[in-house]
Specification:
With about 160 residues, the chain is mainly beta. The chain has one helix at about 5-25, and strands at about 35-40, 45, 50-55, 55-65, 70-75, 85, 90-95, 100-110, 110-120, 130-140, 150-160. The chain has an 8-stranded antiparallel β-barrel with strand order 1-4-5-7-8-9-10-11. Keywords: Signal.
Length: about 160
C-alpha cells in the first residue's frame, strides 16, 4: 500500500473511532426543568363497580431534568359526584416512554382509592400526552366500598 493510501486509511480509522466515542458519550436527552400543568384530554373513567366519567381534571407541579415529577396540586370535576384528590404531593416520572404517578389517591362517596398509575407517552420534552389505561388502585379507606377500582385517563403535559 502506498504511503498516501496508508495515511488515508489511518485518518479514516481515527475519524471512525472519534465518531464512535462521541456517539457513545452523548448524554441522554434531558427534560427542560420547571413547572408543568397536565390537563385531562377526554374523560377520566373511575370504575369501582359503577363507572364514573369525569370531564375535567388538572395536575400541576414540577419536572426535573431527569423527567421526575412532583405533583403539588390536582383537581377533578364533572364526575356527577365530588371527587377529591388526597395525600399530595404525589411523585412520578416521564422516562423512556413510561409515565408513572406514584402515591395517587382520590376519594368519592366515602370511599378512598390509591396506588401507583403506569402508562405510556411519546416525546422527549414537554408538551407530551400520557395515557393511563385501566390502572387498578386499591381501596385504602371506606366502608362497604369495593376492594379496588380502575382508572383510565389521558393527560396533556405542558410547561406552565
Amino acid at each position: 500500500m502506498s504511503r498516501t493510501k496508508k495515511l488515508a486509511a489511518l485518518a479514516s480509522t481515527a475519524a471512525a473511532a472519534a465518531l464512535t466515542v462521541a456517539v457513545t458519550a452523548t448524554p441522554a436527552m434531558a427534560w427542560t426543568p420547571g413547572e408543568f400543568t397536565a390537563t385531562l384530554n377526554g374523560k377520566m373513567i373511575i370504575d369501582a363497580g359503577i363507572p364514573a366519567e369525569c370531564t375535567g381534571s388538572t395536575l400541576s407541579g414540577t419536572i426535573d431534568a431527569d423527567g421526575n415529577l412532583t405533583i403539588t396540586a390536582a383537581s377533578v370535576s364533572g364526575c356527577g359526584v365530588t371527587v377529591t384528590p388526597n395525600n399530595l404531593p404525589w411523585s412520578g416520572s416521564l422516562d423512556g416512554g413510561v409515565a408513572s404517578l406514584n402515591g395517587f389517591s382520590m376519594s368519592a362517596i366515602g370511599c378512598t382509592y390509591g396506588g401507583n398509575l403506569t402508562g405510556s407517552f411519546t416525546g422527549t420534552d414537554l408538551p407530551v400526552s400520557a395515557t393511563f389505561a385501566n390502572q387498578t388502585v386499591n381501596k385504602t379507606d371506606g366502608w362497604l366500598c369495593p376492594g379496588s377500582a380502575t382508572v383510565t385517563a389521558t393527560y396533556d403535559f405542558a410547561a406552565a
